[in-house]
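User: Predict the structure for this protein chain, please.
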Amino acid sequence: MNRDKLKDIYKKYDLEQDDIFILKFGSKEKPIITRSGIERIQNKEKIQLNFKIEKISEDQKSCIMLAHGVIMTDHPDKNGQLVPKVMAQSFGEVSPENNKSNYPIAICEKRAAARVILKLANLIGFYSEDESEDFKK
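Assistant: Here is the predicted structure, written as structure tokens:
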């Protein structure tokens, strides 16, 4: 991970030291953004999210959720309406195989939201700590 790029990201999104950590997988490093970091990025970019449950198991332990996010323009159009400047969507999924939490739907939502927020912020190669239970400090 390029340290200068990381410094720029901290500055751009007003992140704190604990908002990103680096996980090492063999010789590779993955930058992981914590839940608080994801929320700071969402607030700074003014990202609006909507969710739709696409599929849920009867016992509610498995779920697939679609998140749709937009960053609105700063200036109204000729009708006085703010219009989407950038849009992205992604899925979050959870099952007993990838989640140990007692709140699988909340985890599903966090995963979907984080993926969209990272896409909209153009943070390619970054991951959310909610992405995997292995992505914890």
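The mean pLDDT is 91.
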